[in-house]
Amino acid sequence: MKTSAFGAAAVMTAFLSLYTRPAVSQPFGVEQGHNPKEYEGRSPQPYGIYEITVPKPHPYFDFYTVQSFPKNGICTVTAHGPEITGDPFGTRARKEFSVLSEQISAKYGKFTLTDTVNPAYNRPQDWAKTVVREERVYKGLWLSDTRKPFPDNVDSVALYISGIPRDYIVISARFEFNNFAACKAEREAAKQNAF
User: Fold this and answer.
1) Residues 43-70: what's their mean pLDDT?
2) Domain limits at 124?
3) Is residue 23 part of a domain?
4) Where are the extended beta strands (E) located within 43-121?
């Protein structure tokens, strides 16, 4: 009798292991193609944007948004950092950016840094101001390669510093899954169907 009970338990364990979801390793624990309603969050905003609570938050970031459409589900996840104020030279912002880019690079490899500014506003003490006024682009970009694709269905990663009109800057990290092109097409089709 002990053998059959043990055998039944072993069979049940093996059966359940086939149907148990694997540990989530996607960015912040958010899975491509899923419905955003599977995560706690607020009601949707325009353009298929949902603010959600992620399973694996990063200590630097304050809140997270996903972009999702009915046919393709979640196709991006963006982490938004805290407001950075009182940093006119951008020293603190660039230091945080450097730390975050090293962490992302540990998984996704090398990135390309874009640091461009309107020459008319290139005074060092105006670094943050140029970001707020959209006169400066400061962004790291990781792109998947068909020869060595990124893990977790990620197609690209962008880490960027952007400005908010109330005179502060934030760092955000956006992960696009490999269904992003299909989401864009779905969004465009929805716009055309509106007429």
Assistant:
1) 91
2) 28-193
3) no
4) 49-52, 63-69, 73-80, 112-117
- 79 in Cβ contact with 51 (< 8 Å): no
Look up the pTM and report it.
0.84
Residues 172/160, Cβ–Cβ less than 8 Å: yes
Tally of CB atoms within 10 A around 27:
28
4 within some domain = no
Greater pLDDT, 148 or 54 = 54
Residue 108 near residue 81 (C-beta atoms within 8 A): no
* Per-residue model confidence (pLDDT) at position 25: 66
Cα 100–159–181 angle (5° rounding)?
Answer: 135
Mean pLDDT of the residues in the chain: 86
Q: Do the domain assignments include residue 5?
A: no
Nearest 5°: CA angle at 63, between 158 and 142? Answer: 10
Whole-angstrom Cα distance, residue 163 to residue 83? 9
> Residue 45: which pLDDT band, with cuts at 50, 70 and 90?
confident
